[in-house]
Amino acid sequence: MAPKTAIVIGGGIAGCSTAYALAQRGLQVTLLERHANLASEASGNPLAMLYPRLSGDNVTSEFALAGYLHSLALFKSLDLSPSDFNTCGMLQLGFNARELARIQKVAAQNHPDHILNYVTQFEASALAGIDIAHDALYFPNAAWVKPQLLCRRLTQHDNISIITLSNVYNILKINNLFEIYVAGNIIVKAEVVVIANANDAQYLCQNLPLNTQTVRGQVSLLNATDTSSNLQTIVCSDGYFSPAVLQQNARHCHCLGATFSATPASSTKQDNLHIDDKDHLANLDKINNISPKLHQALQGNITGGRVSQRCATPDYWPLAGQLLDAAALTANPPRPSAATNSLPWIDGLYMNVAHGSKGFTSAPLCAELLACLICNETLPISGELAGRLNPNRFLLKEMGLKRLAKMG
Ligand SMILES: Cc1cc2nc3c(=O)[nH]c(=O)nc-3n(C[C@H](O)[C@H](O)[C@H](O)COP(=O)(O)OP(=O)(O)OC[C@H]3O[C@@H](n4cnc5c(N)ncnc54)[C@H](O)[C@@H]3O)c2cc1C
Q1: Which of 16, 17, 33 to mutate to test the pocket of ligand 1 (most atoms within 8 A of CB)?
Q2: What is the structure's pLDDT at 271?
Q3: Does the Cβ of 67 fall within 6 Å of ligand 1?
Q4: Mean pLDDT of 326-348
Q5: 93, containing H or E segment
Q6: What is the set of domains in the chain, with CATH numbers?
Q7: Mean pLDDT along residues 115-128
Q8: Among 115, 157, 143, 130, residue whose Cα is nearest residue 21
Q9: Separation of 6 CA from ligand 1 center, angstroms?
Q10: Mean pLDDT across 352-380
Q11: For residue 263, what are the contacts with CB-CB under 8 A and spacing of at least 6?
Q12: pLDDT value, residue 248
């Protein structure tokens, strides 16, 4: 029988889309977030871009495309206004020999026109509304979205209660019910728990090595010029550049991103959240690959930015699925040929974390996967993809159980 109650820990895109997928199936969901507002950490940038990065005909591209199409359909179903979610399209530029070869390889796979098509530099310029220096892949439905609004909309649901300012320290399971503790007090009980708190997931399941890594990123906001205001699509080179969008500062700004820097283990989280002028310049340099003229025109137009921490795994796949009892597994290692249903699964405990730099395309599909697992429905992705996402894979690999590590 499907469970009736669930707790989701973490109010970013992973937690909010998981809460939504479960609430849509009739579960009563309590969403716990440590900040006063949803989407206050990695999911809180002024804009998030929604597009797939395809590399060829492989399992990584299959997941990227499935996630993109799922997120697009989901966000469209929420009736967000075009000033909050805009399917303006995206041009992915062949800005060097390697990228040109990649986009040509993807174009040769004959994807339907509503997903992507190959365009020349001149066609790209006409679509973008500004001069573009390279041929490109055009994704006509790619979009930008305002993440905080999206997270609020996903959780405005009769079956979802949100408790903010709740930093979860401990999860206990007593008599088939999970009990969640905040500041030493039980605040809620439920049959199912989904851990969706990104870089802090490891604290909640200490025996299971998640191997997550924190990756600092900075986006820059740029005041639009007369020329840059003509930009109609997102343009991606080694970063992304959005059309000018009305921001909270009441200005029309472009969102330009993003930097990547693995966080040294010695630095505290706070040290890493300061805006760095060098990172603004690194972002600005990415515009040179789009259009040298635009790069010149936008010098000195940076008006602000935002820093946050991604949560990534060494193999770049998220961690999404049911959790194993790591202590029981290591105390009694199974044979490599063991059946997955003979492993010590924790009934009701799931995870949706480690979405790296593409959480808006990957987290909602992982949320749907979890909801299908929890409610015993047909999975929305192949068994091979579900296996790649196996949140227990690093422990299983460490134990030499490679076959089991690849099973969902
Ligand atoms: C600079 C930058 C630019 C990016 N641009 C894009 C983009 O354009 N498109 C895209 O798809 N992705 C982008 N990403 C990646 C994307 O932002 C992330 O993949 C995504 O936000 C991850 O969502 P999440 O819910 O897993 O994590 P988070 O948004 O970090 O959410 C985790 C939540 O858990 C809460 N939490 C943590 N511990 C606890 C606890 N113990 N109790 C209660 N709550 C807790 C946190 O407060 C937080 O709200 C970007 C990332 C960065 C850094």
Answers
A1: 33
A2: 67
A3: no
A4: 96
A5: strand 90-93
A6: 5-42+149-212+314-405 (3.50.50.60), 90-140+217-312 (3.30.9.10)
A7: 97
A8: 157
A9: 21
A10: 98
A11: 213, 214, 215, 216, 272, 309
A12: 75
